[in-house]
Amino acid sequence: MKTGVTVMPEYFQNEGVDGVVERLAAAKVDMIATSPYVMEPSNEKDGGREPPVDAGAGSVRLLDRTLWGKRELFVKTAPSFDPDKKLYNGLRYQPAAPNGLTFREGGVIKAFLRAAQARHIQTYLQVQAAIPPGYRVQFGGPLDDDKPRLPDGRVPPKRLANNGSLASPHIIDYTVALTRDLVKTYPDIDGIRFDWPEYPPYFLDDVFLDFNPHCAQAATRMGFDFGKMQRAALDLYQLVHGGLTNRLLERMADLDGGRQTILSSLIDNPALLDWLRFKGALVSELAQRLRDAIPGRIALAFGVFPPPFGTVSGMQYSALARYASALHVKLYTMHWPVIFRFYADAIMKANPGLNEELLCRFLAQLLEIQDPPYAARVSDYRYPEPDEAHPVGRDAQMRKIRDAQRAAGSTPVFAFVHGYGPVSDFKRRLEIGRAASQHGVWINRYGYLRNEKIALLKPTE
């Protein structure tokens, strides 16, 4: 049973490499992941908020461990290394240029690798799978031609994850080039973890991606009928955005959570099933390209959404497991009530007259974020405050990890527990993650781990 912690580079800069690594080594941490960038304070105009605001919902978040003396601030970043431009020749996307920050602070990543490996701690680099330049979620994104699109051709007006289309050769080629560059620059790493190698379904519109023109070409190459998938997805989109009735919700919110109704719909309209399979095929193709770009001695891991979110994100665990050394399945439980709220608000707005309690019961059963009894009002679902327990169920979390492990077969599935929240609730969720996974847990992120939480990481004898 292993324990890993994601430590963003700014904490090595603020607390010192040896200070961070010694603290985690004392807690018997086996693995540490970081990212290939460095950071400095900025202002609201030129920087991004740390911690991230998560489309506004996460503005309540504060760091447990300060950065430059603050629990919230605006920052900017630079790559921690000087990219090899030859690897990116002719590509649409190019790596961020190194600057003074790179040359002043970039050596902190190699210093971390040396310090961790001296203490026999495995080291990982985490990068974004489809957000060029890929070093960090908040800084980057695709050009318009490479943005995922809805079945009517529109780019969703609001997104939390700025991922590009997984069918875009420009996105994939850049990610492969970045991977080769990282392996060349940091040859002693034990593994690379790619975050969001999928279509993260934070908003309701995200569920209905992706119909970018690149997808039409990829579908033809893979043997899918793009036109049929597009029409089926558009019909479903229109049903959800104006065609829902209380009678239909009653059928969907019965004791089986509507699974039989959903299964019957997929059987009756196999183009919908093909669309879900197609998204999974895009994810698997990306994974294969990344595996081919990494020497066999380096582990390939993916940080992914749990069931049932993975059904619509493109996360077919059994297929992805063929290329992965491990899957890190996210129990980012502060996000789950917000996703619920985003979905419910959009559905209520598009379908006036729906019974709110009925909708809440249906979504709670479908998303499996709580154990019964379920909250009856949409307003009950929101981003938890820093000292507020996450409103999620033990059984729901356990099922997500175990379902993913069954699908992944022999490929290890780690429970990826988030550090945000009060100590008592973190302890509860850490214990759930360890009970759910036979392999261990990863913790995201060090910035939310006050010393009392770090003490909890040490396994009990």
Mean pLDDT comes to: 94
- Superfamily at the CATH H level? Glycosidases
Estimated share of beta-strand residues: 5-15%
The Cα radius of gyration reads: 22 Å
Please tally the helical runs, counting DSSP H or I stretches of 4 or more residues.
17
Q: Report the count of strand segments.
A: 11
Q: How would the global form be characterised?
A: globular
Distance between the termini: 12 Å
Main features:
TIM Barrel, 11 strands, globular, alpha/beta, 461 residues, 41% helix, 3-stranded antiparallel β-sheet, 8-stranded parallel barrel, 17 helices
Task: Give an overview of the whole structure.
The protein has 17 helices and eleven strands. It is of the alpha/beta class. The chain has one domain (about 1-455): TIM Barrel (Alpha-Beta Barrel). It has an eight-stranded parallel beta barrel with strand order 1-2-6-7-8-9-10-11. A three-stranded antiparallel beta sheet has the order 3-5-4. Strand 6, helix 5 (about 170-185) and strand 7 form a beta-alpha-beta unit. Helix 16 (about 425-435) runs parallel beside helix 17 (about 450-455). It is globular, with a radius of gyration of 22 Å.
Please write out the topology:
Blueprint: E1 2-6, H1 9-15, H2 17-26, E2 31-34, E3 37-41, E4 48-50, E5 73-79, H3 100-105, H4 108-118, E6 122-128, H5 169-185, E7 191-195, H6 213-222, H7 226-240, H8 246-252, H9 259-268, H10 270-293, E8 299-304, H11 309-313, H12 317-320, E9 326-331, H13 336-350, H14 356-367, H15 394-408, E10 413-418, H16 423-436, E11 440-444, H17 451-457
Parallel strand pairs: 1-2, 1-11, 2-6, 6-7, 7-8, 8-9, 9-10, 10-11
Antiparallel strand pairs: 3-5, 4-5
Helix pairs in contact: 1-2, 2-4, 5-10, 7-10, 9-10, 13-14, 15-16, 16-17
